[in-house]
Amino acid sequence: MFLVLLAALQLAVKQPPPPKPKPPPSKPEEIDLLPPEAAPDPTRQRALEAQLARRRTMLQLHQAAGFATLGSLGATVVLGQLDYNDKYGGGGDTGKYHLWHRWVGFASAAIFAGTASLAVFAPSPIAKPVRLDTATLHKIAMTVAAAGYAAQIVLGIVTAAKEGQPVQRDFALAHEIIGYTTLVAAAAGFTVLTF
């Protein structure tokens, strides 16, 4: 028996150890090409939040002033049409709408300029890529309206300076057409952001 135990012990010592399990394949080491993100600076974060709050307030005022702009422009166009009909449409050229049209027109241009200033001077701390969206359509329509306002002021002055000349009616007609175009552009710019 002793010999059997000795033979078993000798066999146990000579047997190769069981194979070690292979480690799982390791993932290739990831190389980080960018530096680690820095923690946000609290001072800069507060400044950004303040600019965004100011922008929000200015754009809310811009939106409210848009109603006044569209209303005053509509009143200017109505008074301008009444003035045109009075002078050139057989109304007797009484001039009863002339001063109303002039002063409401100047007030409308001032309201438009103030409304536009709120949007133009609102801080924009976050870069926005240029793309075709409702804000871009609004800007395009309002640029057309701004050009119309500028043309209206010049044409109104030129038309008034041509008093008594046959060409005055042509200038007045151009003034009328651009007035309606300005109203349509402003209404389109208003509508794309409202609805």
Explain this structure to me?
It is built from 5 helices and no strands. The protein has 195 residues and is an all-alpha fold. It has one domain. Helix 2 (42-88) runs antiparallel to helix 3 (98-120), helix 2 (42-88) runs antiparallel to helix 5 (168-194) and helix 4 packs antiparallel against helix 5 (168-194). The protein is rod-shaped. The termini are far apart.
Summarize the topology:
Elements: H1 2-14, H2 42-88, H3 98-120, H4 134-161, H5 168-194
Helix pairs in contact: 2-3, 2-5, 3-4, 4-5
Number of helical elements: 5
Low-confidence stretches: none
Question: What integer value in Å does the Rg equal?
Answer: 38 Å
Percent in helix: over 70%
Strand content: under 5%
What is the arithmetic mean of pLDDT?
Answer: 88
Largest sheet: none
Overall spatial form: rod-shaped
SSE string, helices as H and strands as E: HHHHH
Summary tags:
195 residues, rod-shaped, single chain, mainly alpha
Overview in brief:
The chain contains five helices and no strands. Helices cover 71% and strands 0% of the residues.
